[in-house]
Amino acid sequence: MAALNYNHLRYFWEVAREGNLTRTAEKLLVSQSALSIQIRKLETQLGHDLFERSGRQLLLTEAGQIAFDHAEAIFAGGAELLATLKHRPDGHRSILRVGALATLSRNFQIGFLRPLLARPDVEVIVRSGTTAFLLQGLEAHRLDVVLVNVAPPRDAATSWVAHEIAEQPVSLIGTPARIGKGDTLAGLLASQPLVLPTMESSVRVGFEALVDRLGVQVKVAAEVDDMAMMRLLAREDIGLAVVPPIVVKDELANGRLVEARQLPQLSETFFAVTMKRRFPNPLLRELIGPRTAMELTE
């Protein structure tokens, strides 16, 4: 069998990722017909059709999915090689690509990245999105680390490692006018409107259990999955927010908000998720010490 033409494979990989021949041709600055010819040559060499059409979309066949998985590994390995060798001490700036859950506390993100942010020889690139989107970027070697507040599940087919890097207590936070000096926790929960994380949050699960133990009925003013929005709602005096104090540390420092009560046995855990790689980004060692690593099983 003739040696595999990696140029053909590259064109196939780009089309498979885009799912559209026209857009891929425009992206690669080649004609659509030239792109089709290259893919047909690869199909001829492999002896299988790699795509089937569904309207304007190109869908992978079973053989196409197998070829795509191999192409992902091949080109990810090439990207890993380039990224690793670029970290040579030759005066060039090192790059760390970080993915952060869109709803994650900005204060926490800055605190995690602070050791690198002031360094002139380091460039930090931060991308936000959903957990699923960010983990795809991690697997495809487009990201070096992903910051989340729930460790992603893993099985024998995944090689994620979740490093527990911080655990923050959760408190009732509000404006000074909402909080009386003699108010008990149960009294505040029963009398004040609350700004809560959504039901998908681990903090919300723990909060519901706490309320049940205390035997109080609460009034929910808002359910929010974005820490920045919870911070704004607390500042606007919509109600008492159930958040880690780190989310509103500036407002606590200047007195605009106050911490009414810390919620017992309730905390939010932050994770830095990485992939098992032969050549991990050296900058990660400065952010994730070996004593913080906690590889999670399913």
Any overview of this molecule?
The chain has about 300 residues and is an alpha/beta fold. The chain contains 11 helices and 10 strands. The chain has helices at about 5-20, 20-30, 30-45, 60-85, 105-115, 130-140, 185-190, 200-215, 225-235, 250-255, 285; strands at about 50-55, 55-60, 95-100, 120-130, 145-150, 160-175, 195, 220-225, 240-245, 260-275. The protein has an 8-stranded mixed sheet, with helices on both faces. A hairpin with a 2-residue loop joins strand 1 (about 50-55) and strand 2 (about 55-60). Helix 1 (about 5-20) packs across helix 4. The longest helix has 24 residues, at about 60-85. It is elongated.
The proportion of residues in beta strands is: 25-35%
What's the alpha carbon Rg, rounded to whole Å? 25 Å
Give me the count of strands.
Answer: 10
Uncertain stretches: 290-298
Helix fraction bin: 40-55%
Structural class assignment: alpha/beta
Order of helices and strands: HHHEEHEHEHEEHEHEHEHEH
* CA distance, first residue to last residue: 41 Å
Strand order within the widest beta sheet: 4-3-5-10-6-9-7-8
Largest sheet: 8 strands, mixed
Provide the residue-averaged pLDDT: 84
- Global shape: elongated
Give the helix tally. 11
